[in-house]
Amino acid sequence: MNQPSDFPPPTETPEKEKGKKYLLFAPLIVLTIILLLLPLFLIISRRKEPVYRCGPQLPCADSIYATGDLLNKGEVLARLLSRYCIPQEKINTIYSALAAIKFPFNRMAPGDSVSLYYQGLNLHGIDYHSNLITTYEVRFDSLGAALARKIDKPVDTVSCAIVGTIENSLWHSLLKMGGTPGLVVEFAEILRYDIDFFTECHNGDTFEILVDKLLVDGKTYGYGRVYAVHYRSKTENVYGFYFKDPTGKWDYYNEKGQSLRKSILRSPLSYAKISSRFGMRRHPIFRIVRPHHGVDYVAPRGTPVSAIADGVVTMARWHGGYGKMVEIKHAGGMTSRYGHLSGYGPGIKVGRLVRQGATVGYVGATGLATGPHLHFEIRQQGKPVDPLKIIPPRAEPVAQKYMPLFQETKNSYLALIKSLTAPPKTDTIASHQPAPTSK
């Protein structure tokens, strides 16, 4: 006889009830994941390995076929040719032919262009284009021998006037007008003795450049000789004119025939930003106010530092808070110091004579420095002076007997700038004038 149980019927725990709910939603979750991954799966399934075709498609015995490619990063000519299924024996033949004409194998660079020419299935030759001007051509004869030659395209030179207004910086503004980094540097170098482009370049300033533009097949290849420059700001109005006298001596002069070069550079760096000036300041490390005997220029680590004038190196070693420092003694009791360097320039050691503009070291952060910058000092008779207030004497002017020729050359430059920048007249075609003859 069955007795009634004293125990209640078993009930499901909350954990089991949760499990059942998850089981009910599991198919929905799986379906959602499949739908999300389906597009990615379809994309991957459709992707195919690139097809490499060796030689022409559908060739015939007399067909002429041309193709080409660019060198990839870390790639050389041999690797590119092997990608096009050129046999190693033929690659060796190409290299031998190029070596015979002193091909610069060590200067191959990413982006160099290579053209391949086929006659039927046979490789007829290649062209290696290192730039717009120079092409190295290799052609095979009927016996399979290769002959190479170097071809330089003619470079056309035309006079060009670039006129613009400063927006943010000289670098940005001149590049925007079609200039190149090299042209920006040259413009700044010509005027560096009169204008400090780190502190005296402001939005709204204007500039003019008369320069040779180099063209290859109608395309701009670069810029050549700069003949005239002009920079106008609220405080400065500086001209520079290239002039070569009958003895062969040349320089850049202002409108009065005075040399733009001076015995002392305005700054030891071509491009940098002043972060701390001469005078009292709060030291960034010690957090106390004390004299700052120089000017700090912020620049990328490794930027070359130039000697501001001719002189003799009196120190090139670690010097306390200066870190790696170079000190140079100049004429007239003046010395210059370059601190926090990451390294020293070629041949820089005590007793070595250095010329103005020579590299004495490289920007770093050695010693007491919070980041890469140059600490630059000038001392006169041992006493620190503000480098930004030094007014150096100019180099030699145009010889008096050549002044009429200089004035004639200067006026021709100004007239050429005016003609090149004048608005074109109706129904006329503007053309470049021939380059100035004063070379």
What's the architecture of the largest domain in CATH terms? Roll
Largest sheet: 10 strands, antiparallel
Order of helices and strands: HEHHEEEEEHHEEEEEEEEEEEEEEEEH
Question: What's the count of strands?
Answer: 22
Question: What structural keywords apply?
Answer:
single chain; 439 residues; alpha+beta; Nuclear Transport Factor 2, Chain: A; Glucose Permease (Domain IIA); 3 domains; ten-stranded antiparallel β-sheet; five-stranded antiparallel β-sheet; 6 helices; 21% helix; 33% strand; extended
Task: Explain what this protein looks like in three dimensions.
A hairpin with a 4-residue loop joins strand 3 and strand 4 (134-140). The chain is built from six helices and 22 strands. The chain has 439 residues and is an alpha+beta fold. It folds into three domains: 64-152, Nuclear Transport Factor 2, Chain: A, CATH 3.10.450; 155-261 and 394-439, Nuclear Transport Factor 2, Chain: A (Roll), CATH 3.10.450.350; 273-389, Glucose Permease (Domain IIA) (Distorted Sandwich), CATH 2.70.70.10. The chain is extended. 21% of the residues lie in helices and 33% in strands.
Question: How is the topology of this model organized?
Answer:
Blueprint: H1 14-46, E1 64-70, H2 77-83, H3 88-100, E2 113-119, E3 122-129, E4 134-140, E5 146-152, E6 156-165, H4 170-176, H5 181-191, E7 206-216, E8 219-232, E9 237-244, E10 250-253, E11 273-276, E12 279-282, E13 289-292, E14 295-298, E15 304-306, E16 311-318, E17 324-329, E18 334-344, E19 353-354, E20 359-363, E21 373-380, E22 383-385, H6 403-421
Antiparallel strand pairs: 1-2, 2-3, 3-4, 4-5, 6-7, 7-8, 8-9, 9-10, 11-14, 12-13, 14-21, 15-20, 16-17, 16-19, 17-18, 18-20, 18-21, 21-22
Helix pairs in contact: 4-5
